[in-house]
Amino acid sequence: MKRHALTKAIALATVLSATSLGAIAADIPLSAVVVADQVTTTVVSVDTDNRLVTLKGPQGNEFPVQLTEKAKNLDKLKVGDKVDVKVTSAVAVYLDTDVDSGLPGTVEKAGEVRAAPGSDNPAGEAYRQVKVQLKITHIDLKKHQVTFENPQGKSKTVDVKKPEVQAKLKDLKVGQSVFVTYTDVLQVTSRH
Known about the structure:
By secondary structure, the chain is mainly β. It has two helices and nine strands, in the order αββββββββαβ. Strands 1, 2, 3, 4, 5, 6, 7, 8 and 9 form a nine-stranded antiparallel sheet that branches. It is elongated. Residues 1-25 form the signal peptide.
């Protein structure tokens, strides 16, 4: 994982607020993609007063991570400790079965779970989920293309490459909504 991606992933863990994931029960799945990446870093320095931890990545690159007051057990983190960072990203696309469900929109949810205060190993898990509702404005079955309108009113035509999704295009209707749900889960675990 590159430094930028790791820094972004750790920053994500420090700014999230608690809430719960929602389920999409009455929708028809069109496609899904899950990608996971894991990296082990080494603690180079810990500044508990300023809540700043410097980590070294597998290629030797060092980078600071600014933590919020939500990070517990920072005093347990020591120079030389190993910190495992796992990022899982998923994109799921669902067809809304209700043609008149409304205008395009965006909903964002986030949450976190941290190690209990006093735990020997600082650790935590955070997630961020963004659900975007897109309205279908045109379908071209011959070219395997679907045109969507986003929440800002802009249109984009998408080429459907996967044969299993192409087979489902005939079931789509102009005016239906498609929900694209982006979910990122970050797991951080320290080892002494």
